[in-house]
């Protein structure tokens, strides 16, 4: 246990403006508490405060929200050479009978850390290129949402036009089609409604074209970073730059997931027992990182469509009486194991 390996544990409950801090002995007995500001001055004060109140050199800092309000503090503490532990927010069961306040949450962060296995500490996710991928994926989500909405709006306006516009609405909106819509001139005898419709068509055509270019540029950036971090990952069947980037962001760095089973639990692809009576079966896990699960699901669908080995596997399992959902569950578990082994073996630290 971590309690047997350290001289003290620091628990931090993070907020936007201030952080509540407690330092406690391995037995969980509080030594001192303080409150710091969420800025560089507060981080320096905390490090000096820890030195003054620590009973020994072996320390661990359990921080809640290491990728949110506690991001700056986690970076400062890690730069100082202290062990940083990613602490989850306490649930109702942990709070039962204790109430809710910032000092209580800081103490719960200490108790949570002391109960951890020293060989399986939840370390914070990595920065560097991994953080760049996370930012690009967030931007891609927004770009995709706006691009889809603008495309649907443009098609709806085209459906309200003449036969040429209706055919364009049903066809693929290529760069040539969008360029023609952007250059289209309004008729001289157009009434107000026609003029407004024409102006919206031009605006949406330009926006859809720019959105497609932004998505292509985003994909190229993802591809370049993924190839630098994990060479050869995108060469595997069904693994594109977006799915590979999400796998890297969730995996973070070698050592965060202790084995492929832990990575499968993180991805929500670990099988769960769903047996009853004479029925012996497993079902999909509905927990974990749903973004990673979606990426694995996309890889599985692509392989079921394009990969001969996967199609042969699906046919064999179908002949054994497995349902399509159960076959997808098995495929996603195999894909998760393959991703874990590739990331753990070839990922280049930054």
TrEMBL record:
It comes from Pseudonocardia tropica. This is IS110 family transposase. InterPro entries: Transp_IS110-like_N, Transpos_IS110, Transposase_20. Pfam families: DEDD_Tnp_IS110 (PF01548), Transposase_20 (PF02371). Residues 10-159 form the Transposase IS110-like N-terminal domain. Residues 234-314 form the Transposase IS116/IS110/IS902 C-terminal domain.
């Amino acid at each position: 246990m971590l309690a047997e390996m350290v001289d003290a544990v620091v628990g931090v409950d993070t907020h936007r403006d201030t952080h509540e801090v407690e330092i406690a002995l391995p037995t969980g007995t509080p030594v001192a508490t303080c409150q710091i500001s969420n800025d560089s001055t507060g981080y320096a004060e905390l490090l000096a405060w820890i030195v003054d109140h620590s009973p020994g050199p072996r320390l661990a800092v359990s921080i809640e929200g290491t990728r949110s309000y506690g991001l700056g503090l986690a970076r400062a503490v890690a730069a100082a050479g202290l062990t940083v532990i990613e602490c989850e927010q306490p649930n109702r069961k942990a709070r039962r009978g204790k109430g809710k306040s910032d000092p209580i949450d800081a103490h719960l962060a200490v108790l949570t850390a002391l109960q951890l296995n020293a060989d399986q500490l939840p370390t914070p996710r990595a920065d560097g290129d991994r953080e760049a991928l996370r930012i690009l994926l967030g931007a891609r989500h927004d770009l995709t949402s706006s691009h889809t909405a603008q495309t649907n709006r443009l098609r709806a306006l085209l459906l309200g036009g003449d036969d040429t516009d209706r055919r364009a609405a049903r066809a693929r909106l290529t760069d040539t089609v969008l360029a023609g819509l952007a250059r289209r001139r309004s008729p001289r005898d157009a009434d107000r409604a026609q003029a407004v419709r024409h102006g919206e068509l031009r605006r949406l055509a330009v926006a859809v074209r720019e959105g497609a270019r932004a998505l292509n540029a985003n994909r190229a950036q993802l591809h370049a970073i993924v190839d630098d971090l994990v060479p050869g990952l995108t060469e595997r069947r069904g693994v594109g730059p977006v799915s590979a980037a999400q796998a890297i962001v969730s995996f973070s760095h070698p050592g965060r997931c202790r084995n492929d089973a832990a990575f499968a639990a993180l991805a929500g692809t670990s099988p769960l027992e769903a047996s009853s009576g004479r029925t012996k079966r497993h079902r999909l896990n509905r927990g974990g990182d749903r973004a990673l699960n979606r990426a694995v699901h996309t890889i599985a669908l692509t392989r079921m469509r394009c990969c001969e080995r996967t199609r042969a596997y699906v046919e064999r399992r179908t002949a054994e009486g497995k349902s399509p959902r159960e076959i997808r569950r098995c495929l996603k578990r195999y894909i998760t194991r393959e991703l874990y082994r590739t990331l753990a073996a070839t990922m280049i630290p930054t």
